[in-house]
């Protein structure tokens, strides 16, 4: 996947100021940076949920914004879970597939696999209100998994969880990446999450990339004070 000189303005305010990034298939890429630096906006542009002002996102040779949403092979997981309160866990996970016309036995098969991976089998008939925050986020992740996307986008998926659940859910996401071998782009403002999950970290600041590199590379050789403050070893 290639992000080619992506710029995004809201009115007069330029939020993304020319983002260039290559993401390899199967890579776990973490976008890290302070609140308001443009992480969510960049994720939404990658997903095709938001048009860029200029530049483009190319996946398998095709411009995302020119590909119909159902054919993009992208699934997104949000901080707030975004589950339907009136639907059971099972139906929350299966709804997208049902709407896409996937046959019921195939939906059941995929829910079986995803709920086993995420330890959700005991909760399939419950509704979101009957679940803990961690369980709800696992349902939201499961809903992404059943779609069998090539690219997962996570927008601060652990932010609403308490510390213990954050660690558990983080480990589950890492395990999911190893098992599915899908490409994952993960947004966080937490350096521990970035350091432990990433193959490649992209440090963003005010709509620009400050540095791209592996966790140890950024830790040992931060390009500037900003990166050092976020990731680097104390000087
Ligand atoms: P982050 O996810 O890094 O916290 P965002 O991408 O959400 O940052 O936001 C980056 C900047 O763009 C912020 O200043 C935010 O207020 C602004 N912004 C985001 N979405 C919109 C929008 N739909 N309209 C106007 N401004 C927006
Ligand atoms: Mg955000």
From TrEMBL:
Gene Ontology MF terms in the entry: ABC-type maltose transporter activity; ATP binding; ATP hydrolysis activity
One of the record's GO cellular component terms: ATP-binding cassette (ABC) transporter complex, substrate-binding subunit-containing
Membrane topology, record value: Peripheral membrane protein
Main location: membrane
Domain of life: Bacteria
Family statement drawn from the similarity comment of this UniProt entry: Belongs to the ABC transporter superfamily.
Protein name listed in UniProt: ABC transporter ATP-binding protein
High-level lineage: Bacteria, Pseudomonadati, Pseudomonadota, Alphaproteobacteria, Hyphomicrobiales
């Amino acid at each position: 996947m290639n992000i080619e000189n992506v710029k995004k303005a809201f009115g007069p305010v330029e939020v993304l100021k020319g983002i260039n990034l290559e993401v390899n298939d199967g890579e776990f890429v973490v976008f890290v940076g302070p609140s308001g630096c443009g992480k969510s906006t960049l994720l939404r542009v990658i997903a095709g949920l938001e048009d860029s002002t200029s530049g483009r996102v190319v996946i398998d040779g095709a411009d995302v914004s020119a590909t119909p949403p159902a054919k993009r092979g992208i699934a997104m997981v949000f901080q707030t879970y975004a589950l339907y309160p009136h639907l059971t866990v099972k139906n929350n996970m299966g709804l997208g597939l049902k709407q896409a016309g996937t046959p019921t036995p195939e939906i059941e098969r995929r829910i079986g696999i995803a709920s086993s991976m995420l330890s959700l089998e005991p909760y399939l008939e419950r509704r979101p209100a009957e679940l803990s925050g961690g369980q709800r986020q696992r349902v939201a992740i499961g809903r992404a998994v059943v779609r069998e996307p090539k690219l997962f986008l996570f927008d601060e998926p652990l932010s609403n969880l308490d510390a213990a659940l954050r660690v558990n859910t983080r480990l589950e996401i890492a395990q999911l990446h190893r098992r599915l071998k899908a490409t994952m782009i993960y947004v966080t403002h937490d350096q521990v999450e970035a350091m432990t999950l990433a193959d490649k970290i992209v440090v963003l600041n005010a709509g620009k990339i400050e540095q791209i590199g592996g966790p140890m590379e950024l830790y040992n050789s931060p390009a500037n004070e900003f990166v050092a403050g976020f990731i680097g070893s104390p000087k």
